[in-house]
Write a structure and sequence with these properties.
Strand order of the largest sheet of chain A: 2-1-5-4-3
Radius of gyration of chain A: 45 Å
Helix content of chain A: 55-70%
Number of helices of chain B: 8
Number of helices of chain A: 14
Mean pLDDT of chain A: 82
Low-confidence stretches of chain B: none
Number of strands of chain B: 12
Largest sheet of chain A: 5 strands, antiparallel
Mean pLDDT of chain B: 87
Largest interface: A-B, 24 and 22 residues
Strand content of chain B: 15-25%
Structural class of chain B: alpha/beta
Strand order of the largest sheet of chain B: 2-1-3-4-5
Number of strands of chain A: 12
Oligomer: heterodimer
Helix content of chain B: 25-40%
Shape of chain B: globular
Structural class of chain A: alpha+beta
Distance between the termini of chain B: 20 Å
Chain lengths: 508, 230
């Protein structure tokens, strides 16, 4: 964090304290006393010594004390040193001119000094203000999130003004001020009422403003495009005050903060827009896909039922088969949609139990028998494979989806291979489903396990939910899915599940 | 064996189309069919007609199907076949625990429906006390505790025989893993499904024509086992 120096700020024309006046009197007294040891004829030089003392004084004290020293010096010189001594009379014209010149010079010097000092003071203030703003903009720019930016800004305000700060942002939906958690004091009661007034009226309020409202803090609106997007509050200790310059700086801070908040609002809005467009696209694709997938089997059932009456027994048998196939397809589709929503609702809790891998394989094959018809299926489950720890139904769905995927995305009669086994010295078990089809296109590779992914070149059956469900169900059981190229051609998908020793599970 | 009167069945489902189709299928098999559309009606109907079996849909508009089952079981041991739409095993297991005899997932075929119904109705019929159970080329003599395959005796361990006997006594019906473990190995054996899997593998190797694709000692996905006679 940048170390912000508090702006300890005297006003442009600082009133001099009594110490400065005393210092001036003392200086003139010392010069007078010192000059007394000089011979009388040196009285002209003594005048120059007074002048020198006054110029030196200018470096230390303000205009008033310098003027006082000038007057005091003039009179002391005239009274004590200019002949006749100890009298205000002046004998020669030369002495008169000298005295007059001395008097004017000391006055002018006093005035000039004061101006230079004020100028320097101003420069210093301007520099402090620029540094503070620079620190703030840098902190705001470096922050990755709005909250981070606000934290940085409020902390800096705290340090700069030696005050407590509070920020409340406007919630547009609720038309209310929501205090930000980074605030260093709570907006309560009167303070909140004042902040709210500022939000409604878009005008400074509180202490040090024209509308004090009896509140301890000073409140400034954060305004962009004539809209209040937040309120910044600063509470300085009761004995301290805010100067004009500090108020100025505070307003600059408020403007910077408003910019930051607005930028964040714009970013969030564009993000929302993008998401919306994306989800709209997805929705359309889903709608097209679902209506196609639902209507096709319904059309088959409808047409078959129409043809049933008056069909000869042979045709009748075929029609009934068509209806059965359509029903299975519909059932599978509904099952996938339900599975997907189960996954998304987060209510999926796998019931892990010891299962016979062969049983799972058989159940999956049984459920996909009709879809796999025509594809030679080779199943390899090692003899004596011990029970595996899995959710039977979920794993069955996983394998069924993989088998369907293989059947749907390969030409008819393409062989499909289903293998189970245990590897890594008995630490994990796997199922693989492989085929000799075209494999995965590179385009689809990366998003294979996402929802509604379809190979764009081929319009095949299904919603593109199958692999997304596979992944969801496997991950839910603590496993992982890997897709790859089958050596020798085709696609291969491997499902890995943890294979704990039975004792460990029994004890757990 | 001829029946003196047809079996009375009570069908409980809120969908009129399902009730109509069930009635068609069941009346063709000479069952006497009564219907109820809600859980409350089902309970009063069950008390009124004293059915020999109940086909109960779990998704009813007024009462949860499981609640109907629980209230029914308070006074009746009538066999109940539950219909579910979901293939979530929790629902099935919960229904079986609540006293259902078996379940059927919609959509189901007429053949499945009739087979399940026959199996659950057998529970209360005296002829179910058969001493010899047969499937495939296997013959189980429950009295003599002897199992023969193609006429030759098959050696089974005590645990394997217990498991087979339990399935044979409930043949045609599903038995859950927990039921088996509780009945055969006691209440604190309910976590031992690992052993159950191993015994079942052994049984299949000794009795199934193709142990890799068992036809008779079937696995009910995530729920339990079922011995099928044909």
């Amino acid at each position: 964090m940048s170390a912000a120096r508090p702006v300890s700020e005297p006003p442009p024309t600082p009133p001099s304290g009594w110490e400065e006046y005393a210092f001036s009197v003392l200086a003139i007294f010392i010069v007078t006393a010192a000059s007394l040891i000089l011979p009388d004829s040196y009285y002209l030089s003594v005048g120059l010594i007074y002048l020198l003392a006054i110029i030196l004084l200018c470096l230390r004290v303000g205009r008033g004390p310098v003027l006082l020293a000038g007057v005091l010096g003039a009179f002391a010189w005239e009274y004590i040193f200019i002949p006749p001594h100890f009298s205000f009379a002046i004998n020669s014209l030369q002495d008169g001119l000298l005295f007059g010149t001395y008097f004017v010079v000391s006055l002018v010097v006093g005035q000039l000094t004061a101006q230079i000092r004020a100028q320097a003071q101003n420069d210093r203030l301007r520099e402090q203000r620029a540094t503070a703003l620079l620190h703030l903009t840098r902190a705001l720019a470096e922050a990755k999130t709005l909250d981070e930016a606000i934290c940085a800004a409020l902390q800096q305000t705290d340090e700069l003004f030696s005050a407590q700060t509070s920020l409340a942002l406007v919630d547009e939906n609720r038309d209310a001020l929501i205090p930000h958690f980074a605030s260093s004091y709570l907006l309560e009661g009167k303070e909140h009422a004042t902040a709210d007034w500022v939000f409604r009226n878009q005008y400074n309020a509180g202490r040090f403003t024209h509308t004090p409202q009896n509140s301890a803090g000073c409140y400034l609106p954060l305004v962009r495009d004539h809209k209040t997007i937040g309120v910044l509050g600063v509470k300085v200790p009761p004995e301290a005050t805010l100067t004009v310059a500090q108020k100025d700086l505070l307003e600059a801070f408020a403007r910077q903060l408003a910019l930051s908040v607005e930028r964040e609002h714009l970013r969030a809005a564009s993000e929302r827009e993008k998401l919306l467009a994306e989800s709209e696209k997805l929705h359309r694709a889903l709608f097209d896909s679902v209506s196609h997938e639902l209507r096709t089997p319904l059309a088959v059932i409808n047409a078959s039922a129409d043809s049933l009456s008056g069909a000869d027994p042979n045709l009748r048998g075929q029609l009934i088969n068509e209806i059965r196939t359509a029903v299975r397809r519909l059932n599978r589709l509904v099952g996938n949609l339900l599975d997907q929503s189960r996954l998304e609702s987060g209510t999926l809790k796998p019931r892990l139990d010891w299962c016979d891998a062969g049983d799972i394989v058989n159940a999956a094959v049984e459920n996909t028998r009709d879809a796999l018809a025509g594809h030679p299926l080779a199943i390899t489950v090692p003899d004596g494979m011990p029970p595996v720890r899995a959710d039977f139904a979920l794993t069955e769905h996983v394998l069924a989806n993989l088998l369907l995927n293989a059947a749907n995305h390969t030409p008819p009669a393409t062989p499909v291979f289903l293998t189970a086994g245990i590897e890594l010295g008995g630490q994990r078990m796997y199922f693989t489903v492989a085929d000799r089809g075209p494999g995965f296109s590179p385009a689809v590779r990366g998003r294979l396990f996402k929802k509604f992914v379809q190979d764009d070149d081929t319009r095949t059956a299904g919603l593109g939910l199958g692999l997304s469900i596979v992944r969801g169900f496997v991950v839910a059981q603590g496993g992982e899915v890997v897709a790859g190229e089958n050596p020798g051609g085709g696609a291969i998908i491997t499902v890995y599940l943890p294979h704990p020793p039975p004792k460990a599970v029994a004890q757990a | 064996m001829t029946k003196s009167h047809p079996s009375r069945l009570l069908i409980v489902d809120d969908e009129v189309q399902i009730r109509r189709l069930l009635r068609l299928a069941l009346e063709e098999e000479n069952y006497e069919v009564h219907e109820a559309a809600t859980g409350q009606l089902a309970l009063s109907e069950a008390a009124g007609v004293h059915p020999d079996g109940v086909v109960l849909d779990l998704g009813l508009p007024d009462l949860n199907g499981r609640e109907v089952l629980r209230r029914l079981r308070e006074w009746s041991q009538v066999p109940v076949l539950v219909l579910t739409v979901r293939d979530g095993e929790e629902d099935k297991i919960a229904a079986l625990d609540a006293g259902a005899d078996d379940y059927l997932t919609k959509p189901f075929s007429r053949r499945e429906l009739l087979a399940r119904l026959r199996a659950v109705l057998r529970r209360t019929q005296p002829s179910s006390e058969e001493i010899i159970v047969r499937f495939s080329d296997v013959e189980i003599d429950l009295a003599a505790r002897i199992v023969r395959r193609a006429g030759a005796e098959v050696k089974l361990t005590a645990r394997e025989y217990d498991l087979l006997r339990y399935l044979a006594q409930h043949r045609g019906r599903v038995v859950t893993h927990q039921q088996i473990l509780r009945e055969l190995w006691g209440a604190n054996a309910e976590d031992s499904t690992h052993y159950l899997r191993v015994y079942m593998t052994h049984l299949r190797q000794k009795l199934e024509p193709d142990p890799r694709a068992p036809k008779f000692l079937q696995t009910e996905s995530g729920v339990g086992y079922r011995l099928v006679e044909s």
